[in-house]
Write a structure and sequence with these properties.
Strand content of chain A: 15-25%
Number of strands of chain A: 27
Shape of chain A: globular
CATH architecture of the largest domain in chain A: 2-Layer Sandwich
Number of helices of chain A: 21
Oligomer: heterotrimer
Mean pLDDT of chain A: 97
Low-confidence stretches of chain A: none
Largest sheet of chain A: 7 strands, mixed
Number of strands of chain C: 14
Strand order of the largest sheet of chain A: 3-5-1-12-9-10-11
Structural class of chain C: alpha+beta
Strand content of chain C: 15-25%
CATH class of the largest domain in chain A: Alpha Beta
Distance between the termini of chain C: 52 Å
Number of helices of chain C: 11
Largest interface: A-B, 56 and 60 residues
CATH class of the largest domain in chain C: Alpha Beta
Radius of gyration of chain C: 19 Å
CATH topology of the largest domain in chain C: Uridine Diphospho-n-acetylenolpyruvylglucosamine Reductase, domain 3
Shape of chain C: globular
Number of domains of chain C: 2
Mean pLDDT of chain C: 97
Chains: A alpha+beta (753), B alpha+beta (159), C alpha+beta (286)
Helix content of chain C: 25-40%
Amino acid sequence: MADDPKFKNRKFKAVGTRPPRPDGLDKVTGRAKYGADTFAPGQLVALVLRSPHAHAQIKRIDTSKAEKLKGVKAVITSKDLPDVTNGDRDLYDTLENCLARDRALYDGHAVAAVAAIDELTARKALKLIRVTYKVLPHVTDVDAAMKPGAPIVQPRVYTRGVSPKPKSPSNVAKVSEFGHGDVEAGFKAADVVVEKSYKTEQTHQGYIEPHACLASVGPDGHGELWVTTQGHFVYRNTCAALLGMDVAKLKVTASEIGGGFGGKTHVWMEPIALALSRKANRPVKLEMTRDEVFRSTGPTSSTSIDVKIGVKKNGTITAASAELRYQDGAFPGIWAMLGAMTAYACYDLKNVKTIGYDVLVNRPKVAAYRAPSAPMAAFAVESTINEVAAKIGMDPVDFRIKNAAKEGTKSSYGPTYGPIGIGPTLAAVKKHPHMRGKLGKNQGRGMACGFWFNFGGETCTDLNIGVDGTVTLTVGTVDVGGARASLSLIAAEELGIPYERVKCNIADTGSLGHNHMTDGSRGTFSSGMSTIFAARHAIEELCQRAANTWEIPVKDVVWHEGNAIAKGKKHKQLQPLSLGDLAAGSENTGGPIAGHSQIVADGAGVSFASHICDIEVDPETSATKVVRYTVIQDAGKAIHPDYVEGQFQGGAAQGIGWALNEEYIYGDDGRLQNPGFLDYRIPVCSDLPFIDTQILEIPNPNHPYGIRGVGETSIVPPLAAIGNALSDITGVRMTHVPMSPPRIRKAIKEKQA
Amino acid sequence: MMAGTLVSTMINGDATEFVCQTGETLLEVLRNRLGLTGSKEGCGTGDCGACSVTLDGRLVCSCLVLGVEAQGREVGTVEGLADGDSLHPLQSNFIKHAALQCGICTPGFLIASKALLDRNSNPTDEEIRFALAGNLCRCTGYDKIVRAVRATATELRKK
Amino acid sequence: MKYQTPSTSKEAAVLIQGERGQAFVLAGGTDLMVRMKGRFVEPDLLVDIKQIPAMQSIKKLATGFRIGAAVSAAEMGENTSLKKTWPGVVESANLIGSDQIQNRCTIAGNLCNASPAADAVPALIAAGAKVNVVGPQRRRTVAVEKVITGPGTTSLRKGEVVEAITLPKRPPKSGDAYLRFTPRSEMDIAVVGAGVSLTLDSNLVIKSARVALGAVAPTPLLVPAAAQAIVGTKLNKAALNLLAQACCAACNPIDDKRGTIEFRTEVAGVLAQRAAKMAYQRARGK
């Protein structure tokens, strides 16, 4: 669909410029309203009681004393969220994650909640709730969870993806296999085979805004939810289903969002706020603390990955395989599957096979984190690629170029690629001055590649023309980092009017059709596509109005640079009618002028990036600092280059943090030891250099403007790029992420010994 | 229930009185009692800087100051940065240089950046980076923030 | 919770002693308020000492410097005389947290919080600092290394309040330094910290020295053996090696979320050497 062959020659006027974002002023003056920034008359404050145990049977919850405390308006347990999921397994998992039922499955699992007139009272009430636990054996390590005899996290889970169907429950929730060709034959044909094993620790998206919402539900079954989310339509559907409400009667408004990176694609405590509000018949505000964000929302998987690559001396990869074990937390997910799909996506391989094991452990339910699952697989594969190149004495960039996927390559996960950017990003690496820059003392250089699918999905958009000729663009995808500017540029481009005449709003769920959430780098891709169609729909109407005004057939009217023009010599006396003219006269030509689009935005173009990184390592302490960093990525078409660069830089920074310091640290007791920004160490300003960017534009043929998603791929290469730079300077191959100073020190000593 | 304490302060130059419990933080007072929600709570433990304000001209985390400690003192928040309808140059430059994506950390960065420029009109990039190390941003990788602050310093020196 | 703002040290001590529940001194609040937020402590009384004149300033006396307990780390950094005389102590204070934290936190608070990883404490121990303590009945002075008795515990008795920390008068050709290891460049807790203070004779031979380590034992450590390793030397390679060995030998760390036993032990020696070199250069006037 939407295949416009002319985009390559298209000259853009608005698209590609860098105007100020429409929400900028609100955000620099403190006026923008985020999840916790709104208040309702008579609102209550809610707090959640959470399990201190990694795994425990909940024998009894006594809420009677809490309920009797003056000022407490509602106390809920799982009894107040009865199972109305009708056998929908995923929905039941979500229900159980929101509020534990017979068992607490991880440290931080919600067990009960209260709503009271103020925080002090709510806090007292929490202390009065008595929970009787029977502590059960737990497992938090992915490899340990796969061993025979490991505590079973979910007795209802039997391994999917294997035959025959297993007879007993397992922590392996799902096995996924991808690839083609004959890897065994491929390894036999190889001159050199390299096998390596890797581990990566669990990381969190680390958005600065904790989850927050304001819920208001009445006994009439109508309700409203103000919430920080990446997808308010999806939240609406999920919450309505869990609470047994009608979808249409729950209006969800997305606040400004203070970062999500995938972590705000799932409901966590919103159903609790709604249930409390329903029980108290008062508005309820629920804000997570940072501690709760770390313990009780969805970080990404920790992993254990084995990689095997065979190669001819001439540099041709003959076979590649990988086994990827990803933990999903306490509920089945698709994370190992995504790892298995992305692992070798950069390469053109005759024989390739990957197997993903999605594994349950007593940790919080894993959620998406920017290109979910790809960074860990890329760390393992891209580190091994460097080892292989070294073994055959080939430059690692040349080796990648020789084996890079291209148009027509059958990808390791199935589909055949159209025009793609891996080759061009590698060619740009070769040419980049960074590669020739002189390294200082104790400095090393590395590079690595990364891939992400990108996504499209359900999208619905309205475009309304005001009487003064300004345009209201109404979209249903949450703006996580500048999308309103990009979408306004697209509407301005399509209509041929100045950017300043477009105002983009994010609609609540009561004002627009369903939209999938802002994930999969889809915001600008899919709402951009839908905006183009809505604008074209409006242009059809504008042309019709011009035809009506001129009393000529509509086929004689064309739209050009913001004006309706009558085609042909016979109409040469007709002066063009601008959008403003047509808007001003709309009352007499048929009423309001609007365009609408409702689509499934298919054809999201896959995205590739190559990163170059210089690091400096203290030879005595292994303190590591990134001193230079370059991101080269294919954007398809950069609509607002500032915010494309911003995505490149932000993803790289998150990847750098992951590579060097960030990790969930669990104690033997199964409790998270570092649920705060002091000991969960995300990069601070003085940790990073400027992050250079180079935007490539290899148009996505499936989008009218050639757009590809740009948000996620940039987090994929940094882990391996840094690992390769570390190897360059220390001679040691790091196989455990984060590559923290104690781990580097230990690896160097082991090599010396 | 214990009675609250009456506190008299100056907030963004305006005499302000409020009643709060002794355990309430200045951040809670600003947000929940005075409607000044520009200061954000990202951690509540002084690790993220999203709640940065000035107290008698000094940069602090308002989550680590009690409301009652504001008695007789001057508090500056992001809501007081602009002078009427003209933005502070830091505010303009943050927009111009795309120094914000989600924007949740922006108020804290603006207050911290202003505190830096008030005492050092010509900071090096490294000085900017260390002065802003108490403010976490998870979206931008800090690149465009540092550039916006540097551009502002240059602009202010020309004035 | 009650909140009091006494105007004398004694008044503060009496208030705390008289409280039946949990009473805490509130100075910068950068540790206490974090513990309150996490509900690790739920005070019944907070005694804010920032309005006590005796605690508010840095004074240069004939006997050295007196730093009031309510003086922020930032104010220490702004005091050029203090910074010139005790650069290591000031640097250690200025490493605690961000600028936001600097404007609130105090070295007295850093001491009384009694973390094994407290940045200011090894530098203060190396400097031979003394602590002026005021109780409801009497005052006393105690060596800084005698204050912390274990993680989170001190030798201060109920009702005793730190009024000031004093640094001794500095002989000529003296220098000090504090270095710490953190994975991030800022906003981190020391994985290892090392403070060195030394004085040279006219031939640039180390006449006296004190070496202290942080985050390698349940309390910050004074390591006399490490000082002995460098006294009488010009900090040559052999002396530096002995210094590192003595530091590593003194370490009794734990494996935790911030570092390993192995790493801490090794890096303690490295940092002590670097701090000693820096202190030596400063003593030489370079």
